[in-house]
Structure formats: C-alpha cells, structure tokens
Amino acid sequence: MKVLLIKTSSLGDVFHTLPAVQDAWEQVPGIEFHWVVEEGFRDIPSWHPAVSKVIPVAWRRWRRNLRNAEVRAEMRQFYSDLRAEEYDLVLDAQGLLKSAVITRMARGRRTGLDCHSAREGLAALAYQNRIPVARGTHAIERVRTLFASALGYQVPEGMNYGVDRSRWQRPEIEGKYWLFLHGTTWVTKLWPESYWKELAGLVTEQGYRVVLPWGNDEEKSRAERIASSCDNVIVLPRMGLNALNAWLAHAECVVGVDTGLSHVVASLGVPAVAIYGATDATLTGVSGPQVDVMSSERECAPCLSKRCIKPDDGDVQPPCYRDIPPSRVLENLIARSGAL
User: What H or E segment, with its residue span, contains residue 54?
Assistant: First the structure.
C-alpha cells in the first residue's frame, strides 16, 4: 500500500506525526509512505524506514516571490512530482487550507479530518473521506487516531517514533556528556540563565561534561556565559540539524525548554527533561517514552504570554520557573536515567 502523507510543518508537528507512521508500519504489512513536507524539514521524514520518498514544498519561501520565474518553475516541478503517481491513499494530517490544497492536487483517495476536527474546518471540503477525531487530546494521539481510522486498525498501546539513533555516529568527545537546549523563541520560555549555570556546576561536579549548542548570536553569547561559569563545559560550533542530532543521540541526558529541538530529543529516546513555564504542554508539548515535562505550578502558569504578566522583584525571572530549580531537574534525570 502506498500512501501520500501531507504534513508540512512545523518542526514539532512533523515529529508529532512519526509515532503514527510507526503504528501504520507495524500494523499494515508492506505500507510505504511518500511525505510532503516543508523544505527546511526535508531530512526528518527519511529517518523513518517506512518513508521511501520525500517531496519538499517551499510555500513559506514561494509566497513571498510568486512573480519570480525561478519560483514559478519550482512550483511547476513540485506539482509534477506530486502528480507523478496515483496513491492508494492521500492523507492530510495537517488540517489546514494550505495542506488541503496540496491534497486536492494529488492523485488518490483524499482523506483528512472532518470539519469539526480540523484546525481550519473548510479544509475538509477537499477530502473524499472525512474522519472525526476528538479535540482536547495531545496532537500525537490525534494523529495516531486519524491514521488508525484511515488505514483500518486500532491504535496500539505504547508509543514509538521509529527513529534509530544509531544512524548518527558518536561525536569525537571523550567520556559521557549532558546537553543543554537553552535557546527558544519567547523570552517567557527561557529558563533563567542563573539556573543553567547552577545546573552546569552540579553536573560537572559529578565528572560529566556539558555541551551547549546555539543557533543565533544571542544564544551563542548565553552559551559562552554559561561555559565561563564552570569548567568542563563545551560551546559547540554552529551546525545544522543532522550534525546536531549526532550530539543529541549520544548524550547521557538532555535538558531543554519549550523548543522544537526538544521534540527531536523525544523521538531519539534519550533521557530528557523539557521545562515549561509560560506555555502549556498538554496539547502540543514534548512527549515521548524517555522525556518528562516539568511544568510550573504557579497560579498564573501557563499564561501563554510572550511577556511575563506577574513579574516581581525576585532574582529569578520569570518567577514561574522558581517551581523548577536546578536541583529538581537533576533529581528527575537521575531517577529517569540512572545517571550519576
């Protein structure tokens, strides 16, 4: 059975789909996926053995340059690639108008969420088979339910992303190391820098190294400040996702915040903690058999605000992270991984 899967973005959404692909691979003998995904995430679907072809789409880039001749040529090539085969099933796991348009262009029986289940209800008009999936549960479970209904099996117990972390060679570093994912988008998602420094000290005191990646100048500066606070902390050079994955896959433990890279860690099965303060992990947060979400229990959390709504004069800001000090994070990972 050959399925065209449309799940284009974002990074977290792409990873949320992998457990459903794994379910289908286990439950439907001989199933094969072609996956339409945003060009920036084109490497990720190929990590799963059930995905034999990736069809990158560049809508985020194309829409800014629709009159450009090269862009229009790329769009024609994408349409040609999309129409090259007739599929047993065309499955839109995104539920947006933009994904519905792609679904409508493909050849095969079009299936997706019904108008009450899709994020944009009008998307359901593009499908020949419309499947109801209850809202209010985590995105991973919603996608698994969609796949099971579309392909005719019961959602199996347990969850597996189907990603073999041994595909990445261990980086050239002596001894065991922990990796800190300290960067994210909103200021209110950032775990306090003083906490990163304190945790780095606690980990290195036990003989481990700490490794710090970064993706922009602000993150690089923060990584350098954390590294200067104690010995045995390494600031990595800037690198792409595949190179960084080698460091993530072979880490003893990973500590992260609400960021796309924490979803990557969840798929790799590395013992990890994902720290949530201002945001809510209930519906779209990091989830995996080896990752634990530590959320603030403060009355105002999660506020879902890019600016702290209840700041005070304390040293730790935003104050919601006082519920999640370095000692708690360390204890959690010791219990989870058996480290130290």
Answer: strand 51-57
